[in-house]
Write a structure and sequence with these properties.
Elements: H1 14-18, H2 20-27, H3 41-52, H4 57-64, H5 69-73, H6 80-93, H7 104-131
Region (Disordered): 97-132
Protein name: 783_t:CDS:1
GO molecular function: DNA binding
Length: 132
């Protein structure tokens, strides 16, 4: 905050912009090892948080500035706990013999793994679009 302004009049260069999110993460102590943190992460993470907290989509869209629900849904992802809850509900519906109950966790792990791979594809796509 300087001279009544919350921003600088200076232009942001490519180097500053490309490292912006990484610098913020480092300053607040977020471990960046083996993580693909990009500037767009600052948009994806809050939208996912709003979605997971059950905030109405129409409310979130009014805050994020998305023009459509479909563009908003690109960023809204289930939390790991929500995924487990949904998968557990589906498994509970199926009447499995007692001997197969131990396999339930294997099914959950397999489905979570597939879902994480799908999210990585979306992340890669967003990163490629950001580079354009």
């Amino acid at each position: 905050y300087e001279n009544g302004k919350w921003y600088l009049d200076a232009k942001l260069g490519l180097n500053l912009c490309s490292n912006f999110m990484k610098n913020i993460c480092s300053q607040v102590g977020i471990n960046l090892k083996d993580r693909n943190i990009v500037n767009h992460s600052g948009r994806t993470t809050p939208i996912t948080h709003l979605f997971c907290e059950g905030i109405l989509i129409v409310t979130s869209i009014s805050i994020t500035g998305h023009k459509s629900e479909s563009s908003y849904h690109i960023y809204s992802r289930l939390s790991e706990q929500q995924k487990k809850d949904v998968l557990s509900t589906l498994i509970d519906v199926v009447d499995l013999p007692e001997s197969q109950n131990n396999e339930d966790n294997d099914v959950v792990d397999l489905l979570e793994s597939q879902n994480n791979e799908d999210n990585d594809v979306v992340d890669d796509s967003l990163n490629k679009n950001q580079d354009l």
